C-alpha cells in the first residue's frame, strides 16, 4: 500500500502549445488510475503554476473565440471541482502585475469546494522536493 | 431486492461529462455518503459507464447495477456503499 505523489509543474503559456493543457488533463486523469492499481495504492497529483505558466490561471479566457478550443480556465475549474491541489506562484503573479481577483481561485459556480492557493515559490519548491515524480510542462 | 428498485439516497448527474470526470465525481460523492446508502448515477459516457465506474465499484467491493436506457441514450448506474 503506497501513495505515489505526482507534481505537474506548468511553465508554458496557455495557448499555441498543448503543454499546459496536457498537464491539466493528465493530472485530472491520474486520479482514476487507482482502479488499475493494487488495493490500497493511490495516486495524488498536485499542479503548480510558475513563471509564464501562471497565465493559465487568468479568468475570462477567450480560447474558444480565437482558437476554437476550450479554455484552460475550464480545465483549472474542473481540477478544483475534483479537489486537485493547485498552487500558483506568488512572486510570478506579482512580477507580471496580476492581481488575485484576476485569477481563478475557486470553482464554486460548478459546485467545486476546493480553492487554488497562491503561495511563495519556496512552498512550491517544498512540494517539488516531496513528490515521487516531477513532470515539467 | 435489486438496487434499481430501491430509493436512492443521492442522485449524481454526470450527463455530458466524459472520462475521467464521471468516475472522479462518483468517488467524491461516495466519500460523503454513509455506508449502506445507494448512489444513482446518470451517465452517457460509455467508457465510464461500462468500464471505469463498474471496475471501481468492484474493486471497492460495492454492490453495483447498471441499466442502459437505449431510448434515452444513457445509463443509470447504482452503487451501494458498503
Automatic annotation (TrEMBL), chain A:
It holds the Pfam family DsrE. It comes from the Bacteria. InterPro entries: DsrEFH-like, Sulphur_relay_DsrE/F-like. This is Uncharacterized protein. It comes from Dissulfurispira thermophila.
UniProtKB/TrEMBL annotation, chain B:
CDD domains: SirA_YedF_YeeD (cd00291). This is UPF0033 domain-containing protein. PANTHER family: SULFUR CARRIER PROTEIN YEDF-RELATED. Residues 12-36 form the UPF0033 domain. Belongs to the sulfur carrier protein TusA family. InterPro entries: TusA-like, TusA-like_sf. Gene3D superfamilies: TusA-like domain.
